[in-house]
Write a structure and sequence with these properties.
295 residues, alpha/beta, nucleus, nuclease activity, HARBI1-like, nuclease
Length: 295
Amino acid sequence: YLGSGCDQIDMHLTYRVGHTTVGKIVRKVCAAIWEELLEEAFPPFTEARWKDIANSFQQRSQFPNALGAIDGKHVRVLKPKLSGSLFYNYKNYFSVVLLAIADARNKFIYIDVGAFGKDSDSTIFERSGFNRKLENNELNIPKDQPFPGTDGPNVPFMFIGDEAFSLSQKVLRPFTGKMLSDTKRIFNYRMSRARINVEKTFGILSNKWKIFQKPIKGNLDFVVLVIKTCCALHNYVRDRDGIVFEDTLSTEGFEDLPMNPAGSMRGPIQAVQLRNKWAEYFVSDDGSVPWQTRY
């Protein structure tokens, strides 16, 4: 069901099992998979784990002090009962949102599933339990440290988002505007090279689990369970079988979320200054790389 994306009615006809029975089996198996894999697929946040994630971003994407790339995607669903227009998105279909943070190995670090299709990335992230813990310093984030090759100053570890997210002291986003300096263009390019990891993760997810390539049928609880189960299986399989490169090139079945008007705001001065530190480091002798002017 998850891998082939076949309809439950097709399974009912193929296996000569009652339609209701098929639904119960699918739900029961998904719940068992989620319960069994939860701790392995989404282990607790420890300082050692965050440092491993940051080291991976530095080694694979040459982006220092990064803890994860954030993005959200619409997952097509049939209209949930009694939901009105809450799940009707700007693309004119019904959806729930899968908000995810991915690491540089194309695994999910965190997922938030089931938000209304009409909501934006930034709004969902700000309301999430993860963000509440982040703001309250409950995630065991490592202490600030200097950029590689330098003796200081200390710089915090941060998450990477696109233009849909507001700039903050926890989340970096690109510089916006058409007349950008070379320093800002290089920052944006370096950042895009790191942020592409979450896009690749979604691509692998949708190509591996065909259930995402057409609207998911069922009540909201079932849809959320299916999405969470696929994400847990994604991490489980990723650890064992690696990836097929072609799967990273498309995100069939997923759509980007709308831009949040708040995302265009300049951000607090402290956040602006932090982003400038990354931009300045990338054009320094210690932080530059040969390919960064190919933007």
